[in-house]
């Protein structure tokens, strides 16, 4: 009986360790023990394409809820981004559905924390509905989500259960 219990306990520990490693999936990194999973793209896309790629992986373009998130996400991006992605990256903030009503791609919740550059968002030429973070100062800028510049991006998703 004692040996059976010991083997069972050992298996529980091993399975727990395997689950902890596999909970994010290929290429994703977990933020802390209870956090979501994040992955920096290895290529550049338009915002609309980036959103679709994240959704195909069960996630969304990264959500930045506060200054702590902003700092963590920017640091994560700097550590994991490929060289051609040094100018900035897409985040999930957008006002595609209703101009000047910024929401998160994750769930449509209103954007309450922002880090806009001065005089942004400005909806230049009436076509800027998606947010990027510029690497020069970590400030946000609105860009065209359909035909604007291509950027790298960060996908975020919840960990999968084991």
Provide a concise account of the structure shown.
This is C-type lectin domain-containing protein. By secondary structure, this protein is an alpha+beta fold.
Structural description of this entry:
The protein has 162 residues and is of the alpha+beta class. The chain has one domain: Mannose-Binding Protein A, Chain A. It is built from 3 helices and 8 strands, in the order H-E-E-H-E-H-E-E-E-E-E. The protein has helices at residues 2-22, 47-56, 67-80, and strands at 29-30, 37-40, 60-61, 88-94, 103-104, 128-134, 140-144, 152-157. Strands 1, 2, 3, 4, 5, 6, 7 and 8 form an 8-stranded mixed sheet that branches. A hairpin with a 6-residue loop joins strand 1 (29-30) and strand 2. The longest helix is centred in the first third of the chain and has 21 residues, at 2-22. The protein is globular, with a radius of gyration of 19 Å. It starts with a helix and ends in a 5-residue tail after the last strand. Mean pLDDT is 89; it is low at 7-15. This is C-type lectin domain-containing protein. Residues 113-142 are annotated as: Disordered.
Features:
single chain, 162 residues, alpha+beta, Mannose-Binding Protein A, Chain A, eight-stranded mixed beta sheet, 3 helices, 8 strands, 22% strand, signal, C-type_lectin-like, CTDL_fold
Strand content: 15-25%
Shape: globular
Summarize model confidence as the mean pLDDT: 89
Count of helical regions: 3
CATH architectural type? Roll
CATH level-1 class: Alpha Beta
